Amino acid sequence: MEKSLNFEENLTRNIWQNLELAQVEPRQLSPLVLAYIGDSIYDLVIRTYLISLGNMPVNKINRHACRLVKAETQSKLIGILEEQLTENELSVYKRGRNAKSYTSAKNATIGDYRRATGFEALMGYLYLDGQYDRLTKLVHTGLEAIGEWEHHRMEKK
What we know:
Homodimer. This protein is mainly alpha-helical and 157 residues long.
């Protein structure tokens, strides 16, 4: 009996299959390429989380999303999560953090920007490696640690 796929696995499989894309091995991609896709994946996770809070003006959602996806917040998240990463995940993060980027952050310190790049590389790696549960668990743990879940429980009351 074939195991049924969850939403994320179905979505990802459909993207690759329906567009007839060649599979990639995440370990063979540069850390900046991993960060490139990881930035989008993390943004999608955050946007999904925010719309789950209920219908609200888009500008309010966008302001909140900007706070959660900015380099400073990503730097905080990886600081919280670093101790919980596996050896492989830590290696991916460090490769991303130490990668020579030719762009710089507009509103972040160099340190925050580098740590955020490492965080995004990790998100991209987990996504491309099909580790969706791990990706969302890490994001949830980080957001919970910075008080994000509690903030919205209080806001809903």
